[in-house]
Specification:
elongated, mainly beta, 3-stranded antiparallel sheet
Length: 175
């Protein structure tokens, strides 16, 4: 935007979908998926029409890099970024609301993840031979689940891993 201010923006738009197919005979051996036919502990499931795992339709990234103050001895810089990840499912079964899947896994895992914003920031002083910085990640302390795995054969449920909470710190670098 100016000599001292850089703005950035990126957007991701996905339209992923498994093709529909014949799922009358369960795949055997490895892999446990042939085309759109996937084996679950409840039997074969046609995942045709479902979106790919971890593939939100929309994602956005915004960034700001600002040289706030130029001094004879160095500069003060502010870096802010924001990232949005839309709804997604953890596996190719989708929402578990049809066929044999209603008996396979229950709980929050079946709702998938996504639809969250994460905000990060960094304020630094940079001199010729060193830099000092203060940073914060996940500024709003958003609770989000970026990863999940079905453990249906063990516990009839799925496991979701929570993302890191707000973290902050200071750093010193010598160059």
């Amino acid at each position: 935007a100016t000599d001292n201010l850089t703005l950035s923006f990126a957007a991701g738009i996905l339209d992923t979908e498994y093709d529909s197919g014949d799922c009358t005979v369960a795949p055997s051996g490895f892999p446990a998926q042939i085309g759109s036919c996937v084996v679950s502990s409840g039997g074969p499931v046609d995942v045709g029409g479902n979106a790919f795992p971890y593939a939100p339709e929309k994602s956005y990234n915004l960034g700001l890099d600002w040289d706030v103050l130029q001094l004879d001895s160095g500069s003060v810089n502010l870096n802010l970024d924001a990232a949005y990840k839309g709804d997604f499912h953890y596996d190719n079964f989708g929402d578990y609301s049809r066929g044999v899947l209603t008996n396979v896994i229950t709980g929050d895992f079946t709702e998938g993840g996504g639809d969250y914003w994460l905000f990060n920031g960094r304020l630094s002083y940079e001199a010729e031979s060193y830099s000092l910085g203060l940073w914060v990640k996940n500024i709003t302390d958003e609770e989000y689940y970026p990863f999940g795995i079905a453990i249906e054969n063990l516990f009839a449920n799925g496991y979701r891993m929570i993302g890191p909470p707000r973290t902050y710190g200071a750093e010193v670098k010598f160059m």
